[in-house]
Amino acid sequence: MSSEQFLKLSQQYFSYMTFRAKQENMTHKLSINFYYGNLCSGCSHFFGIYHDNENITHDTQNPEAYKKYLLSLQPISNEDLCSVSGELYRSWAAFQLNPLEMKTTQEK
Question: Which of 4, 9, 42, 104 has its CA 20 to 30 A from that of 36?
Answer without folding.
Answer: 104
